[in-house]
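WARN  no MSA supplied for this record, continuing single-sequence
INFO  ligand: copper (II) ion
INFO  echoing inputs
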Amino acid sequence: MIMLHRLLFLLAALAGFSLPAQAEERTGNLYWAPPNYTVGGEKIDTLLNFIFVLTLIVFIATQTVYIIYIIRYRRRPGHKAHYSHGNNTLEFWWTIIPTAIFLLLAVWSNRIWAELTMTPIPEDAITVDIVSYQFGWDIRYAGADGKLGEGDVKLFSVNNKFGVKPEDPAAKDDFTSTELVIPVGKTIHVLLRSRDVIHSFYVPSFRLYQDAVPGRTIKWVHFTTTQTADLEIACSQLCGTGHYNMKAKIRIVPQEEYDKWYAQKAAAAQQALSAL
Ligand SMILES: [Cu+2]
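INFO  complex generated
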């Protein structure tokens, strides 16, 4: 009986009985990467395009040689098969050239990686605490004091979603949000954590992909946006049954709009605090 249930469940799953995920709809550049909205993202695009073009050239070249050989050396009456013991000059070059290309790609991509992740974060960056969980994102901003109370992965509990120290004065006025609101052009420093399993903070338009690992606080993610937009954070690690729906809104807005939003949220947090 159990087997039958399982079989029915599997069939239903295959037939697609799950709810529609209503993910962010792509409108432009459907056959290529979505538009880039961050400073430095174009460097990743250049590297990616280079790899694509190179792969295309190698594909065409190797397939052409392959087709020429199967036609030219096909079995024909009166032609005897020729045994080749190899060619050292050819072997040399087809080892050296790919090695050089791979080294170039390794150095190139490492430089971009270092530039985007290891450069010092500007003083005026906005620090946002993002905690992932099955299945959603909790987002926390510094309150009126401008200081984000430190979050500790060891303090996570049902009542302490961000793992802040109860006595920490900096944490008292911090406020939470269901959406990531960002002023355009300002550097955002993300503190990334997970309360349960491995999730991934993935924003294609930011050219940004970072796993959130339980027990760790990832501190190096920072980015600066170049234009206003409405986007979505999508979890990019298959983290369980609700994975498909693990998303949060991102709003990149003009500075004035952000200031207004921030003032409102900070004031509400202050009010809640004084009501205690
Ligand atoms: Cu997830």
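The two ends are 55 Å apart (CA to CA).
INFO  checksum written, moving to next record
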